[in-house]
Write a structure and sequence with these properties.
The protein is an alpha/beta fold and 156 residues long. The protein has 2 domains: 1-56, 2-Layer Sandwich (GMP Synthetase, Chain A, domain 3), CATH 3.30.300.20; 58-155, K homology (KH) domain (GMP Synthetase, Chain A, domain 3, 2-Layer Sandwich). It has 3 helices and 9 strands, in the order βββαββββααββ. The chain has helices at 58-81, 125-138, 140-143; strands spanning 6-9, 27-31, 36-39, 84-90, 93-98, 104-111, 113-118, 148-151, 154-155. A 3-stranded antiparallel sheet has the order 1-2-3, with no helix packed on it. β5 (93-98) and β6 form a beta hairpin. α1 crosses α2 (125-138). The longest helix is centred in the middle third of the chain and has 24 residues, at 58-81. It is elongated. The chain starts with 5 loop residues before the first strand and ends with a strand.
């Protein structure tokens, strides 16, 4: 169906002690379209200064990928139904917990989209629920996760 690529690049910084486990985990993530961003583990996972709080951590990237995927399908389905949207803002949150074996995992991701519809044809609450259900059902990222995904929508 398709291949998707990202390049993750890390290099030991001058003065860092790799074998002593005192080295920066800052790295870059690049995509085929030319976009590059600073990445780092969360300071909750790796202490500063080895982690850079300015970087996007993998957990945030996972939540953003799910939120973005859900939004894109939601927008597409809304347009097909004739519902105009002025904005869509999602303040998504991921909850990391420990499994029985002690390993951490993203057990729950809550999407909290605030959507402002406009125009003559406005969706009912049932229409909005159906749009979110369809978006969740088709979202490739959501279909790839074990995490519980909850949608708490509000209408702006």
């Amino acid at each position: 169906m398709g291949l998707y690529e990202a390049t993750v690049s890390w290099r030991l910084a001058d003065g860092d002690d790799f074998l002593g486990n005192r080295f920066s985990r800052r790295h870059e993530v690049s995509f085929d379209g030319g976009e590059t961003y600073l990445a780092s583990p969360s300071p909750q996972v790796v202490a500063e200064p080895m982690a850079d709080p300015a970087g996007v951590d993998p957990e945030e990237a996972l939540i953003a990928a799910l939120s973005s995927c859900h939004m894109l399908y939601f927008l597409a389905f809304a347009a097909k139904k004739g519902f105009a949207i002025d904005y869509y803002v999602d303040n998504a949150v991921g909850e990391m917990t420990k499994r029985e074996d002690g390993k951490s995992w993203m057990s729950r991701i809550t999407l909290r989209p605030d959507v402002k519809f406009s125009g003559d044809k406005l969706p009912s609450a049932e229409d909005i629920d159906a749009l979110h259900h369809s978006a969740h059902d088709y979202c490739i990222i959501g279909n790839s996760l074990k995490s519980e995904v909850v949608v708490e929508h509000q209408q702006g």
